[in-house]
Amino acid sequence: MPDQTPTSIIKARDLHKCYWVGTMPFPALHGINLDIEPGEFTVLAGRSGSGKSTLLNLIGALESADNGSVEVLGENILAMGRDQRTRFRLQNIGFVFQAYNLIRVFSARENVAYVCQLQGKGRKKSMEIADHWLHEVEIGHLGYRRPDQLSGGQQQRVAVARALASEPKIILADEPTANLDSMTGRRLIHLMQDLNRRLGTTFLISSHDPDVKQAAGRLIKLADGQIVDAWDNIPKPPIAPASACPVENLPLTKRLRNYLREARKKALNKRGHKMNEDQH
Amino acid sequence: MTRSTSTLNSIVLTVALRNLLGHLRRTLLTVGAIAVGLAALIFLWGFNEGLHRNMLGNFQNAIIGAVQIHHQGFFQHPELSRAIRNPERIVTGLEKAGVARYSRRLETFGLAVSDTTTQGVMLIGMDPTQEQLVTELAKRIGIGRFLQPGDDYKLILGATTANNLQAKLGDEVIIIGYDRYGAMVAESFTLAGIITSGEMGLDSGMAITSLSTLQEMVDLPEQVTTFVINVEEKRIPSLVDELDHALRGESLEIMPWYSMFPVMKEWIILHNGFLYLFIGVVIFIVLAGELNTMLLSMLERTREFGVLMAIGTSRRQVAMMMLAEAVLIGIIGIASGILLGYVIILVTAEIGIDLSILLGSTSRFYVDPLIYPHLKLDHLGLTIGAILLASILAGIYPAWRASLLQPAEAVRNG
Fold it and tell me: What topology does CATH give the domain A38-63+88-236?
């Protein structure tokens, strides 16, 4: 990956994370370097166990890395204490989870208002903000329903509204469409894209849903805890075979074009080696 | 309190309350356990207090009263040489202290003689009119009648003593004693009444006559050995202090009942001790029950807590949610328990609890078989405080565990 840029809103360097089950190590991330710029709509793609969620958790200051650093909005979040991280998340990061994870004893608007109240806003003001964001995600009329009275798609919209209500700079979404049918998932992604464009909020989404990947402004592919591929997707180019996709023709940044050129060379070399081996 | 703090407190309370309502059956079971436990404790306290009052009342009303005044050393060595020198001074002191119910007595030892046998007795001379203000001896006469004003040379005996002497109503009983000079004197009395109380102290070894008769017999006109006072239990310590102060220099001993018969006091303390032990057991059960509920709640909501932490809820707030839930359960349980316990006390205090079904005769221990529970506010306060403390303790461990959750792990594995 290229060196840090002064405009990065998220900057990860040499991130390592390993989980342990008893004495068995399960490496999750292995030397991740990543820069995300403000306003990006980035998708982390990869199979289950590739390290997408772990990377999101580290960026969201939800857990600690074994090695490396993560700077979010210029703050080294891994050096923060637990309470400091909590305050940082409250002010700067919104979360959308795969299983919606709404507070089941609260109505939709109370769920959204909750984060505003945590920020110290009064109940009335918080409810006004909640109504606004529920309206934004097109379920303003369902504000008084409890999560168990909403469909999966509606619940995820509440989750998005909740993530936006604290007016964060970044929204981290972990497999937001995984529990939704494809139509609902597509609607949700379009909604998030729209919010990204209109509000300029940075979205970092982990997903293996093709629709989400298709919608990505930038796609980063992980495998075995490493970034194996990445490209910008604005405007959406057809994902062509390596040989038929001249990197120079794509509207990419210089650094990404260089990165992809290198990656492609590596892939061709690898393929060449494989063909030679097959011939032998 | 700042507005934001009050908002946060209100969220914490709202989440706690909603969760309790969200698990209504579990909440009701826990609340019910606390309520039943507290109601049982309230009833036990009430019953215990009713029993003690009954027993102490009977004990005091039987013969000894609440407080006695003697000449210094008379209680240990009841000799006529220790008669009170200046009874009028004591009367003035009592009136000054606002004591209206007191009685004068002359007490000595003697030997009762019938046609067939003899029996040692405590010979008490008392004014029948004054005595009825202080004790309920008259109510304990089973055969014949109690002394009346002007009854000279009439005698009341305990049932056991009368039986030993084989004396019947109207029989002549000779009492042999010593006068103030130590000379032997004998007098003849007519048996007018027999005490059949069932209480050991009264039925055995007691011979009662009028004060004037005994004064004449032992040649101590106008003199007494004992003042017996009847006041409410809570008034005793301050009255003793007041009289001690007012009668200083008179060589008197002012003795509350518990100084004269400490065994009775110790028995009550021991009895209360058992009750404290029982309260401890009940509170332990309440604590264990509520702890179980809270731990279940915490485990069920691990993911929820992880999410709450992820979106900006502090560890302290998460802990407060659990603690608030535990305290709310405690408060609702306590309120229900008070209500239930109060109704039980109200009903049983009205109809009484008949111990004779279980215990047979209880009069040997100065206990009426019918007990009327009575609840003291300090006992209620103590029990409520202990259960509230148990509720807080039941919330502390799950709250601490919840606050230690790692958000990512809790969301992943919850």
Answer: Rossmann fold (3.40.50)
